[in-house]
Automatic annotation (TrEMBL):
<dbReference type="GO" id="GO:0030246">
    <property type="term" value="F:carbohydrate binding"/>
</dbReference>
<feature type="domain" description="Glycosyl hydrolases family 2 sugar binding">
    <location>
        <begin position="58"/>
        <end position="189"/>
    </location>
</feature>
<dbReference type="InterPro" id="IPR050347">
    <property type="entry name" value="Bact_Beta-galactosidase"/>
</dbReference>
<dbReference type="GO" id="GO:0004565">
    <property type="term" value="F:beta-galactosidase activity"/>
</dbReference>
<comment type="similarity">
    <text>Belongs to the glycosyl hydrolase 2 family.</text>
</comment>
<dbReference type="InterPro" id="IPR017853">
    <property type="entry name" value="GH"/>
</dbReference>
<comment type="subunit">
    <text>Monomer.</text>
</comment>
<dbReference type="GO" id="GO:0005990">
    <property type="term" value="P:lactose catabolic process"/>
</dbReference>
<dbReference type="InterPro" id="IPR006103">
    <property type="entry name" value="Glyco_hydro_2_cat"/>
</dbReference>
<dbReference type="InterPro" id="IPR006102">
    <property type="entry name" value="Ig-like_GH2"/>
</dbReference>
<dbReference type="Pfam" id="PF02836">
    <property type="entry name" value="Glyco_hydro_2_C"/>
</dbReference>
<dbReference type="InterPro" id="IPR013783">
    <property type="entry name" value="Ig-like_fold"/>
</dbReference>
<dbReference type="Pfam" id="PF00703">
    <property type="entry name" value="Glyco_hydro_2"/>
</dbReference>
<dbReference type="GO" id="GO:0009341">
    <property type="term" value="C:beta-galactosidase complex"/>
</dbReference>
<feature type="domain" description="Glycoside hydrolase family 2 catalytic">
    <location>
        <begin position="298"/>
        <end position="514"/>
    </location>
</feature>
<dbReference type="InterPro" id="IPR036156">
    <property type="entry name" value="Beta-gal/glucu_dom_sf"/>
</dbReference>
<protein>
    <recommendedName>
        <fullName>beta-galactosidase</fullName>
        <ecNumber>3.2.1.23</ecNumber>
    </recommendedName>
</protein>
Amino acid sequence: MKVLKIVLLILVVISTQLGNAQGKHETQIQYLSGTDKDNLVDWDFYCSEGRKSGEWVKIGVPSCWEQQGFGNYNYGSDDEKNRAKEFGLYKHTFNVPNNWKNKDVKLVFEGVMTDAEVKINGKLAGEIHQGSFYEFNYTISKLLKYGKENLLEVKVNKISANESINHAERVADFWIFGGIYRPVYLTISPKDNIDRVAIDAKADGNIISDVFIDSKKADKVQLSLFDLKGKKLQDIRVENIQKEIGKFKISGIANNVKTWNPEQPNLYVLQFDLLDKKGNILHQINKRIGFRTVEVLEGDGIYVNGERIKFKGVNRHSFHPKSGRTTSKALSIEHAKMMKDMNMNAVRMAHYPPDTHFLEVCDSIGLFVIDEICTWHNPMLDTKVARKIVKETVVRDVNHPSVLLWANGNEQGWNPEVDDDYAKWDIQNREVIHPWSIYKKTNTIHYSHYHSLINDAYTKDKILFPTEFLHGLYDGGHGAGLDDYWNVMWNLPLSAGGFLWDFADEGIERTDRNNEIDLQGNKAPDGIVGPYGEKEGSYFTIKEIWSPIYIENRFIRNDFNGVFRIENRYHYTNLEECTMTAKWVKFEAPNEGLKTTILDENKVMLPSLEPLEKGTFKVEKPQNWQSADALHLTAIDAHGMEIFTWTYPVAKPKEVSNSKIDYSTEGSVKTETTNKIIKVEANGIMYSFSEENGLLTEVKKGNKIIPLNNGPIILNQKDKIIDVSVKELDGKTEIQVTFEEKKWMPAWSTIKEKRSDIIKWTVHSNGLLDLKVEFKGFRNLKGFRGITFSFPEEEVAGMKWLGDGPYRVWRNRMKGTKFQVWENDYNNTVTGESGFVYPEFKGFFSSLYWSKVKGNNNNGFTVYCKTPHTYLRMLTPQEPKENKKGKTHPEFPKGDISFVMNIPGIGTKFQFPESTGPQGNKEHYFGNDDKPIVLDLTFEF
């Protein structure tokens, strides 16, 4: 814990907000604890039960004591008899200088789990505080010994004496911790001081503020506006000031200010000077503000600065696997940056107020916030404690421009008796919502099926924004289904978007289990990212779907004219503020590296489109554009961040494959049939095929067996084989399997034709092995169409491929990949459960051109795919231990390595894939009217 460094840290007194000056008129802060999860200060500690209990030792503060090796672990759903009920006793000494005698000294706790009894020098500082997620303070000036050492004692009960708080916090669906888990510090202010301020800074520059004072000398307050670098911009012209008991009410106006919004989060510092009758400064404080106006218009939408917004949001816990609920500003920045990188503009606090620094980051980086008090289903918080909690939440967070709405608890935990309390403390009078409820102007339904977005019920006049949707258990939800949902949400006038559940897997390092990650089965692995921020596939799907630059789906063919249709899905930004680069690229062959050769690169002129406008842009085609493998388009926003890179294949799979396959006629082919096995030897490779069904039974190169076998099995093939023939030709041998003819009706005809499925192998003299499989299409198929092989999982070391990647896809999660050469080593990650190595190795991969499968104890093989829109199935992902009735683990074909024309969708914790939209439906339509589907592959061993 770097004790010497921390000791120096707590001796440093820092001023609030503006500069490092320690002027006599400013509030000073002195930390008694460390500042965050990475900077702790040792206090004396006694734990009553569980690990390391029964003796006084040291503990780092702030922390969750379980993560320091004390007490016992609990998840909220644990039954009461197994619920850990230990308490902790804390002691800490600190020195108070004599010159604080005429100061107002407060002791501030940013968060304690759960009930806190605080004493200074043996005397109670005030009433016992109840509630884990709320900042509280005591004025302790009269309890201090000046010029001497002082003793702080805190008794913390993990379980509250208030049973409604236990139900709200201790029985909720998240990890339960104990301890002083957020920082503790002293504020030292002049005796005549500003206690707090509440500010409403509108988009037009109008400012209204309540200035709460503790002073008999105060005569007036003056306001000044600064930029974030400390440069004074203007004195605020005060138009009205009213002095009331204990406060001033002030209104004024700032000139030429820039508004705050997530796309341009402009911030200022508003300075308050409390003056006596002679004009002397009694106290000075500074608050960071943003000018913005929020309106929730019934039957219309949510407006910020006059623009109707769509929430592209996610729920987020304050959590880290090493430190539990003790976090840091660095972690807040890391999380917020990932949200912005996914093109999100909003975050809901789940299910309690976050650390103050997270809201500060949302202010500065630009995220809309729903701020929420902690409740959990029924019964609700009792009214007395709920009123206190509402006050503590609003008073702390009232001045953050990022906070748009208050949430009075979660999922039926709302106490309607305190709905009106928010307005008592919120000068901005922000709207209060009940998440998972139809309440006043809003409908925040949770986990609704896709069809509910038609919004045709009696609530159709409500503003619709699910505060939780597409639950992200394991690899299901989040990106899967989002494209369908968002197409409706974006175009539905009364939709205000929604919030995915949730940001990160809440896996804790169990200090009682050698620091193994515990996710409580399927209760906590709901994230877009893993416990340490590991990015899952949905991360990039969300990034594409929520891109503020929307590009219609495009395919590049020989008559490509360079034109792309585009829509500006920003709320405040003209597209001309963004830049785009076009790269025409060519990729290396399988046996070469991952290098991408840029044939041509040029800037794309994006049109001047205001928000919601549609238009086109054109990519210039160089003379050699048709020799490129792909076109990459990268968009950069006004702040230099990548919005997304869209990729478009230019060359067709057959063109790429044929350019890389060597069909030289060196060597010879030898064919013989013995014991119902057709053996074909070419260039040192021995192929064995079954004479009965034409399946590949063995590949042997030299003395090494390459264990690709038992294929191709045509999936969903029930026809009988009527012939297996062998033809020895000049420099090659052909083996053809013909199935019985079946009646088949083209979509355009009423006449049923007869058609046979065919498997055709060709062994070339240089050892190459071609495979063509022809099979009938089905207009309505609920199974797989394609072919499959066996290849033992333990024999696979990795793969390199040209296609979409690096993440696997599902039918309802196709977006977010890039078309280029990728390389992944084998892993057995079960998304959200074990491994946490991403991308996952096993699954379906789209737009296959070629793949080099690396073997363990074998040479592996390379396969070239000449059929467009083919999916590679690489092994079968391991099923999660607590899979939800098959929802989050789709069906896979038989075998191990497959080449298929269709893949399944994936569901969520609460939904099967077909209820998340059309893309999740099980039905697949094949109907190639004039010819069969042909899978054309070449294997190189």
